[in-house]
Amino acid sequence: MASPLLETAPLGFPWVTVDPFLFCVHHDDAYPRANAQMGPAASLAGRQIGQDFEGKDGWRMYHGETVPGFPQHPHRGFETVTLARRGVIDHSDSLGATARFGEGDAQWLTAGSGVVHSEMFPLLHQDKPNPVELFQIWLNLPAADKLAPPHFSMLWNRDIPRCAFQDEAGRGTEVTVVAGQLDGRRAPPPPPRSWASRPDSDVAIWTIRMAPGAVWTLPPASGPRVNRTLYFFKGEALKVADQVVKSHLALAMRPEVPVRLEATGACEVLMLQGRPIGEPVVQHGPFVMNHRAEIQQAFQDYQRTGFGGWPWRRDDPVHGREEGRFARHADGRAERSEG
């Protein structure tokens, strides 16, 4: 029988992805205590402020100058899916929407015809460290939806299914289903023009957490015309079918067969799966289209319109330290997370 493991690739920064995904990065920053401005209570000397990606002392400022994160920047032609595992993210955008989310929440943003947004990582605790961990995943849009109206959805922690399994020895595996379905449980719906909203796209975004020694069988996808990648990013070793993986790697899998996974020590895996869109991809920075002329048009449109302009006083807005997790949409609709 052919191995279910097709090929492997190292986990860089960002991680290798395949159609319909464009990009995946794992931000895992051990930020220290916060200062009064919700930045790190530590010297920033020796960092390339505005472009700090080196990971000095175990954390990065990214494009932030006071608060870590990504001040206002544009996107067109794809979606961002942000899984906030620890810490919080403050979102603001050119539509006038804003949010604070984290601690297991996810945000799904369809950039579509164009949006400008900021993603800042305010450090809330002045008396203890402020670890921030998140995945940001870029999911492509087909040509028919490249210029769809921008839209964002909040997937609150309380609404995201977590499927618990036990092997014969009672060792547990928990699968968090951000997109797709598993064991009869379906993730909250993606935005309406997402590739993932098409029933035959078989898009799945799962995180898999396995206890030491746990055994779990990954079920097959619904069909063979699907790309499936497992990202083994945490743990000592993972046995995939009959192959022991001792390095953190991206694992391209055959989608049509079940795969036995066995953890050595506690292990964590991210799975990205979906039917490929199968269209040309031309990317320049924050714009992803099908043809070079469309990239040129995206730059012209952004320079002319600012994709609606920036309604916020700062390029890197953050909410108050005591603010909870919430979302306020462009139409005025408000949501608040519990806890």
UniProtKB/TrEMBL annotation:
Family matches, as SUPFAM superfamilies: RmlC-like cupins
Gene3D superfamilies: Jelly Rolls (2.60.120.10)
InterPro entries associated with the record: Pirin, Pirin_C_dom, Pirin_N_dom, RmlC-like_jellyroll, RmlC_Cupin_sf
Pirin N-terminal domain location: 64-139
Domain Pirin C-terminal: 206-308
Origin: domain of life: Bacteria
Homology family: Belongs to the pirin family.
Protein's UniProt name: Pirin family protein
Organism field: Stigmatella aurantiaca
